[in-house]
Design brief:
CATH architecture of the largest domain: Alpha-Beta Barrel
Number of strands: 15
Number of domains: 2
CATH superfamily of the largest domain: Aldolase class I
Largest sheet: 9 strands, mixed
Bound molecules: iron/sulfur cluster
Distance between the termini: 39 Å
Number of helices: 15
Order of helices and strands: EHEHEHEHHEHEHHEEHEEEHEHEHHEEHH
Strand order of the largest sheet: 7-8-6-5-4-3-2-1-9
């Protein structure tokens, strides 16, 4: 199982919380699309023996592209890669880019999944975040997408916003449930350096929501979505039975993927590669057959830590057997020691050799992952070696 991600680094407006690589200057759009096609063609050999099961146009805002431009990218993939007949093909879309006509066209060119950046059903929150769309547009676009026949729709929400009350957050989650979508991703607001929110926080214009309120919002989210029949399959992701994001799940399950476009990452089990986060440098490299990426060969420690971070995030957890067979005795020793610590405290469960976060562990997942990570000069192993 393999995937292709294409990064479209264009947005019509900057959201105040966002630190993704993007620009609101669309003047290089046509040139960039030519570059993306060239990268897709030139890297096809990396996936020569692989069936492509997921394609994901993300960004940025790929819904700013014209239908013909999106179609061109999908056609280039199909012409150069072995795409499975039932591949999951996702478009990230902003609600205000969608109309019934556009949704029909998107379905017609092959998209079978939409990931919609809704973020909130409160006008005040949308304004605070500098989102382009209104609440009415968000609700309308989900309804249109369903009417058009999209049977796999995901919406993104953000909690932990400044001054957001528990009641306001609960209302958001309940509206999402009423819309009867198949997938919901909900993220706790992070103040990334370089964003407007970060500056306002530093200047005292915004006040961070206390951690205990964000945690209660997380609890509300989990409770309501579970009651509504969603599976909580990754820390921030919920789906109707079986309807996981196959593309994102392949990141969490360490499957091979190709990342196309500026700032996109690729992974092939032994190495990680990332393209430059600059449209100009990316295009200069592509157009002149020069390098536009860096590659890192993964050490055993990197692979172990990646497996821990991605595995613990999900219901599929960490396999003790895999740690035993794939990693050295020092990794195994460290893993077992931390596993026992968190089994005793009730923060992880272990069933048939698979270690997962327990419901209480979910709330301190960052700390648990940090403890499980392995640093090669770990003193606990030295003492027995
Ligand atoms: S959140 Fe999405 S739409 Fe907003 S600036 Fe970031 S990439 Fe663009």
């Amino acid at each position: 199982m393999s995937g292709i991600y294409i990064h479209i680094p264009f947005c019509r407006k900057r959201c105040h919380y966002c630190d993704f690589f993007k620009t609101t200057d669309l003047s290089q759009k046509v040139r960039l699309l030519a570059g993306l096609k060239r990268e897709l063609e030139s890297r096809a050999s990396e996936m020569a023996s692989e069936e492509i099961n997921t394609i994901y146009l993300g960004g940025g805002t790929p819904s700013v592209l014209l239908i013909d431009e999106q179609h061109d990218l999908l056609k280039t993939i199909c012409q150069n890669y072995l795409v499975s007949g039932d591949a999951e093909i996702t478009l990230e879309a902003n609600p205000d880019d969608l109309s019934q006509t556009i949704l029909s066209a998107l379905k017609g060119i092959g998209f079978n999944r939409l990931s919609m950046g809704v973020q909130s059903f409160s006008e005040a929150d949308l304004k605070l975040m500098n989102r382009r769309h209104s609440v009415v547009q968000a609700i309308q676009s989900v309804k249109w997408a369903k009417k058009t026949g999209f049977a796999n729709i995901s919406i993104d929400l953000i909690y932990g916003l400044p001054d957001q009350t528990l009641e306001e957050w609960e209302r958001n989650v309940r509206i999402a449930v009423e819309l009867d979508v198949q997938h919901i991703s909900a993220y706790n607001l992070t103040y990334h350096e370089g964003t407007v929110f970060y500056d306002r926080l530093k200047k005292g214009i915004l006040k961070e929501l206390p951690d205990e309120i964000s945690l209660q919002q997380f609890e509300i989210l989990i409770r309501i979505l579970k009651e509504a029949g969603f599976e909580h399959y990754e820390i921030s992701n919920f789906c109707k039975p079986g309807l996981y994001s196959q593309h994102n799940s392949s990141y969490w399950k360490s499957k091979k993927y190709l990342g196309i476009g500026p700032s996109a990452h690729s992974f092939d089990f032994n190495s990680r590669r990332w393209n430059v986060s600059s449209i100009e440098n990316y295009l200069h490299g592509i157009e002149n057959n020069q390098s536009y990426s860096e590659t890192e060969i993964l050490t055993e420690q990197d692979r172990y830590n990646d497996y821990i971070i991605t595995g613990l995030r999900t219901v599929w957890g960490i396999s003790e057997e895999l740690i035993r067979t794939e990693f050295s005795a020092s990794c195994l020793f460290h893993f077992l020691k931390i596993r026992d610590k968190y089994l005793n405290s009730g923060h992880v469960n272990c069933t048939s050799g698979t270690v997962c976060l327990s419901p209480v562990g979910l709330f301190i997942s960052d700390k648990i992952m940090e403890d499980f990570m392995f640093v090669s000069n770990h003193s606990s192993y030295k003492s027995i070696s």
